[in-house]
Amino acid sequence: MGTRRKISIVVLTGAGVSADSGLATFRGAGGLWEGQRVEDVATPAAWIRDPARVWRFYQLRRARLLEVRPNAAHEALVRLERAASDAGGGFTLVTQNVDGLHQAAGSRVLAMHGDLRHLRCTRCESVLLDLERLDPADFATCAACGHRPLRPDVVWFGEVPRHLDEIGRALGRCTHFVSVGTSGVVYPAAGLLAAARARGAETWVNSLDEPWNLDPADRFLPGRAVDVLPRAVQAWIEEWL
Ligand code: OAD
After folding, report:
1. Is 113 a catalytic residue?
2. Residue 14 C-alpha to ligand 1 middle, in angstroms?
3. pLDDT (tens digit, 9 = 90+) per residue, 71-127?
4. How many other C-beta atoms lie within 10 A of the C-beta of residue 157?
5. The domain containing residue 79 runs over which residues?
6. How many angstroms separate the Cα of 114 from the Cα of each of 87, 118, 225?
7. 106 alpha carbon to ligand 1 midpoint, in Å?
């Protein structure tokens, strides 16, 4: 046995990884937040004030999920996970995305911001996978307790992201950190890159534009994730594993 340290990879993805599957990102021209205030559709207060508006916003996004498929970037991350596992290394994929595309590609994923494919009852906390009730004008009712309306099972601004303990443990072991397709403005996800760097991990960042949290110590790989990741993953497998 050599003295080589154990490789432990953490990947964080954002909306950019799904852009080439046909899903809009949030910020910038044509983004989901263009002409839409976060406070009006993505907060608990908005749900109380105007549930019909919030429901409509998410139902339109939920319906889009039936039309999209994982792309070459999602698939490349599956290869990285398998190669890490075969080599006895660690691999954790964290996503801010709620589109289920990493899962559809075959990745195990920690979905920090929840899952748009699921609806949740705020009374009995039942969660159900549902991409059938997609009417933007008709609320869904809980089959278990009859409560209405069910809410999308996503994390809104002001709510606590999921899996923070497991993400913290993965960062504590992290030797290689990769950020893909995220603008680095929404915390706590945006802080993971700096936390990995502070821990001594080597860091790579793929995005179209330089994200807000980019540091000179990070290796920036500009371009579309579908172009950049398949080649980068191949190189990482050869170099790290
Ligand atoms: P953003 O829309 O803020 O950022 C998307 C990033 O992806 C930008 O840095 C783009 O340059 C990059 N990008 C676009 N197309 C790309 C492509 N084909 N390949 C690679 N990169 C590409 O999306 P997020 O950072 O994911 O939270 O947004 C973070 C959170 O803000 C979301 O999870 C959501 C949102 O408000 C909640 O709703 C709680």
Report:
1. yes
2. 5
3. 999 999 999 999 999 999 999 999 999 999 999 999 999 999 999 999 999 999 999
4. 13
5. 1-23+70-113+161-241
6. 30, 8, 22
7. 21
